[in-house]
Amino acid sequence: MFIAGLLTLIVAIVLFFISGRQRRAAGLPSGRVIYIDTRVWGNVEKPLFDKDLGLTGKPDYLIEHNGKIIPVEVKTGRTPESPYDSHIFQVAVYCLLVQKTYDKRPSYGIIHYPGRDFAVDYTSDLENALLDLIADMRINEHRSEVARSHEDEQRCRRCGFHEICDQRLA
Ligand code: SF4
């Protein structure tokens, strides 16, 4: 489906959808609606990187709050009723990278949609699902093609790679 390349955040998210570990997603947090004060957002100057996992990513903003560092991902377009799975994983990656970079574990990350903000709790279940995803990515990263592993049209409609995926269902 996609040419596998660098071990990056984007690949991680793609592989979530094509891996056989989607069942772990059943335990993903759904996101809590919150109010956030955009005046305290701090720009991120360079990507966060963890060499042990070979993972890199750059949150849109970081917030310092009560001694913790909270990553923020800003999304444009339609505001969903609850965050998309791919966005939850993206925030989970940032939480993991914040923990590795600053040695402080965020208890949650934030997804900012135009009409609503969600806090995504960075639970141990979410972290484990993410680590499974990264392990799958390691297995699949040298394959040039990976077959779709589901029959869920809705998943394809909501997928951020819908436009470029030659295996989409809708
Ligand atoms: S469009 Fe569908 S098949 Fe393609 S990556 Fe997304 S979820 Fe998978």
Describe this structure in words.
The protein is of the alpha+beta class and 170 residues long. Helices cover 30% and strands 21% of the residues. It is built from 4 helices and 8 strands. It has helices spanning 9-18, 85-102, 124-140, 153-158, and strands spanning 32-34, 42-43, 48-50, 55-57, 61-65, 68-74, 108-113, 116-121. The strands form 2 sheets. It has a 6-stranded mixed β-sheet, with helices on one face. Helix 1 (9-18) packs across helix 2 and helix 1 crosses helix 3. The chain is globular. The model is unreliable at 1-7 and 18-26 (pLDDT under 50). The structure holds iron/sulfur cluster. Residues 17-18, 148, 155-156, 159, 161-162, 165, 167-169 line the site of iron/sulfur cluster (SF4).
Q: Over the alpha carbons, how many angstroms does the gyration radius reach? A: 16 Å
End-to-end Cα distance: 15 Å
Bound molecules: iron/sulfur cluster
Average of per-residue pLDDT values: 80
**How many beta-strand segments?**
8
- Stretches where pLDDT is under 50 for at least 5 consecutive residues are 1-7, 18-26
For the sheet with most strands, the description reads:
6 strands, mixed
Instruction: Give the H and E element order.
Output: HEEEEEEHEEHH
The helix content is 25-40%
**Oligomeric status of the shown chains?**
single chain
Query: What structural class do the secondary elements suggest?
Result: alpha+beta
Choose one word for the global shape.
globular
Question: How would you write the strand order of the largest sheet?
Answer: 1-8-7-6-5-2
Q: How many alpha or pi helices?
A: 4
Strand residue percentage: 15-25%
